[in-house]
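Re: weekly structure request thread

Next one in the queue (154 aa):
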Amino acid sequence: MRKILFVCHGNICRSPMAEFVLKELLRRRGLEDRFAVASMATSTEELGNDIHYGTRNILRKKGIPCSSRRAVQMTRRDYGEYDRIIGMDQWNLSNLRRISGGDPECKIRLMMEYAGLSRDVDDPWYTGDFEKTYEDILAGCTALADALERGTGW
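Done, posted below.
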């Protein structure tokens, strides 16, 4: 089973949104038993907190199931546990490389790269625009699910 980790700053908005979106896309394609999907933070600011209500609301509105969970921070040990680690923005990528010791196995990617773009997923904590964040994450996760289905997501 391949393991995919989504990471953002606090693990309450973007990374759990991506986690639940990809899980649902994989379920719809009958691929859920081939991939384990999780999310974590690069910071300690939101540790123990549940998903942001804005994330929960947009997922519910879009028909994406989600469950209560608690924000956790990624560690160097987690780097070895996952096959692909996907950050939401350049700041996340920088922190991920610091945490992992420089990405020695080339596992770290930017979310929007899967959609053919080299830009960040805006943080709705600051923008308040959960709809736009969802659209970006859906585009990235759909392209990732397509690649995983073809066997080219690695």
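The chain has one domain: 2-150. The CA atoms of residues 16 and 39 lie 6 Å apart.
Next request, please.
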